[in-house]
Every structure is written in structure tokens, then in C-alpha cells.
Amino acid sequence: MATPGELALLHAVLEPDELSHIQRLLGSWSLLSDLSFSDLLLVVPVTEDEGVLATQLVVLGQIRPSNRPTRLHHDLVGESTVGEGWAIAREALARGEIVRGEIDGISSSGPIPSEAIPVRYDSKVIGVIVRLGREAVRPVASSPERTYLDAFDRLAAMVAESAFPFPEADVGGEESPRVGDGVVVVDEEGRVEFASPNAINAFHRMGVYSVPDGRRLGDLGIEESAVEWALTTARPVVEEVERRPDIIVLVHCIPLVAHGSVSGAVILVRDVTDVRRLDRLLLSKDAAIREVHHRVKNNLQTISSLLRLQARRVPAKAGREALHEAERRVRSIAVVHEILSREPGDQVSFDEIVASLVQMAEDSVVGHDRVHIEVAGDLGDLPADVATPLAVTLAELLQNAVQHAFNAERRVHRPTRPAKRHPEDHPTASGQVTVVLRHGPYGLAIDVRDNGVGLPKGFDIERTNSLGLSIVRDLVVSQLDGTIEMRRVPTAEGGGTLVSIEVPTGPHRS
User: Fold this and answer.
1) What is the pLDDT of residues 165-195, one digit of tens each?
2) Which alpha helices (DSSP H) does 44-99 contain, by range?
3) Residues whose CB is less than 8 angstroms from the CB of residue 375 and which lie 6 or more positions away in sequence, other chains included
4) Which residues, in sequence order, are bridge partners of residue 258?
5) Beta-carbon-side half-sphere exposure of residue 486 (alpha carbons within 13 Å)
6) Alpha helix (H) ranges present in 243-372?
7) SS3 296
8) How far out from the chain centre does Cα 12 lie?
């Protein structure tokens, strides 16, 4: 289904400011629907090819009340309105005044008593709100209904005067109070004229048990700066009021403006104590998880340092190399936990991991000829359970390339990490390793290619004796449910070795 903006572009001619006004109205008109206990339709005139307004209207928006059964069990958004059944909407559009009558042709039960409210922006009428279900005969008996309908009439007049929605009004989210959460109506001096039962319950939660009628919120001991600001500036205010450390009420104050003067305000209140308590628990949980990752990272770095120290005391070259490789693998896992310790959640930016792994691989070799590693593409944010084995896999492949793909006799393993070099500082690089990261049709794909000596004849990763490549194969196949292929690149294509890894994600991952 097309959005209201797309429908407006297809069927109507609205300036950008006029379309923004329409979208703000659609973001805040649940208040109008609930106060009027009615379904609302927003219609705008269709423009003919010649640029002349047609008699046809198109429905841009529809909303149902949350406190009454709907009269419309089907959606009309995007439909065009024709015929005499919509005469009051066309009359309101032409006259710029609220028109009452009936809408026919949209319900099997017959004509629906309705009223059409012109939507004005500056001095131009750009659309009409059709309220379905206006009861013309039945008297409204209860005080809450009379108050709600009176508030709706005052807001409808503001719509017709281009005073509602407000230019800077925040579009309500899931937490924004609604009429069912609690309504307070105050006069131009801030004295309470009406408070709904749910609003009274919110006051009770705040420790206020006095009758609010005729009194200002400040007299009740409730912070009223939001109300004062709304009445003074004629602009809406959203504020959290914390009566006690454990009670928080969200207040949305909407001034009622008539002919440029503030005549009162509608205040929506919602007890968000439980919501804020959950928010704090989530923040505490996120902080605890980050602290765990931070401590894991510190412990892994300690293990890495111990392995490095132990390697210096092992006389046999093979033993030193084994300890250095174990130390590097531990460090690659520590990189993941370091990033997780800085960000909430279990997603980690793999680009940051790749940058650290590339630096580790380039720093692990010295000699007259350098090896330059280039990275193309990215994988974005990945779950930690994917990022960790993938980081170890990439670290192994990079280390294997810089150690074995080129002139091995001129490479000396460094036990310590040198100072950082500029990423473009590779004036004597003779070896080239390229890492390509991308999202394939079924998941993640990584290609690691070097321009070195290539694989030996008859090489098969399934039968390799290399511990590093065995780890890579097991991580990709067993942990990530992926595939790995290593092949020698023909000399005609530049030579070297190409490693291709594919890891399924989403429903393709078992």
C-alpha cells in the first residue's frame, strides 16, 4: 500500500510545506479520533491533467478510535470518492468551514451522520477531515463524553484555522500518552476543569489524593512547568514528571487556541513507571554485558602476554612458533570482545575487526620487502557468534598468506607488535594480499587472494596437515555451516592463491 506522501504525489498537488502539514496531522490525529469517539478520514482533492481541481477526492488517511467500535471494517486509503455521497466534504473544501450532514456509499447500513472539517494551511484549504458517526439526535449524557466532545470541537476549530497540528509538534511514538491513558482539561489559567478516572489514578500513584477540580496542578504538589509553558507559548510540551524516585508520569500538554488566544489545554498523562523501570534494567543489563566483555578481553590479553613471555623461554624454534600462533589466535578473539565491550547488544562491527586483524598480520613480518594487505567491501554488523569464528578464520588466512605465500626465508616472526604505520605507507611492498568482503545471495562471502607462490601441487584442505588451515576448515564448516575452497590461481591470471569462503545467514543457516 502506498504511503500518504506517495498518494499525494500521485493524485494531488501539494507544496512541500503543505505535505509536511498533512503528515504532522496524520501523526497526531489519534487524539482527534479518541476525543470524538469516531472514525476519521482525511481526503484531498484530485488534480486533473490540466491542473484544474476535480470534483473527485482521494482518501490519504484513515484512523479508528481506540475507545469505540469502528464503523468501517474495510480500509479506504487510496480510494477515490465520487458522487453526491461526499457532498459535505466538497462543500467544506470550497467554503473553508465545518459542514455537517451525511456520508453515503461507504457502509452497507446506509448513510452515516458525519461532519467535514477543512484542513487549512496558512490561508489555503488543502484537505478535509471527515468524522464519521456524529450523533445528531442522541443527547450525550455523561460528563466525560461531553468534555471529550467539547475538546474535540475546539481542536477541530483549530484545524480549520491552521492552528493544529502545531508546526513543531512531535509525532507521537509508542510511549506517547493517548486519551485512554488519562485526560486532564485545564482553563486558560491552568485550573483543572476535568480529570478522567485514569488521570485520577495517575495522581494517586504520585501520592496526590485531593480533588483536583478548580485547582492548579502546583496546588496539588505536581510539577506544572509544562502546563505553564504550553499556556504561555501556545505550543505543545512533552515532559516526564517524577513525583517520587519510583513514580514517573509522562505529560503531554496540548494548548487549546481560539482566534490566536489560548483558552485552555488538554493534558494527556500516562504512568510510565514500569516502562522506565524496564529501561533502567535493560541499561543495567547492557552495562553488565559490556563489563563482562571488557573483562574477557582483559583476560585474553593477559593470556596472550603470558604466551608471548613463555615463547621467549622456549629454546626450540618449533615450540616458539607454536606459542606465537596460539598467542595470535587468542589476540584475534580478544579483538571481538574489545569491540563488544564498547557497544550495547550482541552485534559487532566486523569492519573494525578486519582493520585490527590486517594491522596484526602486517606487523607480524619484517624484512626488506613488505606485504601490503588491501581490503575491499564490508560485512557491516554481525552477531558475536558469527564474528568471533570469522575473525579467527580471517586472522589465520592472513597470517598464512604473509608467512608462506612469498619469500619465506626473508620473513622473521615478530614476538612483539611494532609501532603503527600509516595505512598507505608501503613503499617497498612486493607482496600483495587482497581481502574482498561482500554479502552474497545466501549469506556472507570472503575472498582472500595473494600474488605469491601459490599452493603446492595436489593440495587439498580436507587432507592438510597444517594446524592453522585445519582450524580454519573446522571453524567454517562446523561452527559457521559454511564452505571453504582454496585453489591455485593460474599464472595467466596473476598467480598466487585464492581462498573463497561462504557463510549462510538467516533462514539458510542451520
Assistant:
1) 988 755 555 567 889 899 999 999 999 999 9
2) 87-95
3) 354, 355, 358, 434, 435, 437
4) 261
5) 22
6) 273-312, 317-340, 350-363
7) helix
8) 30
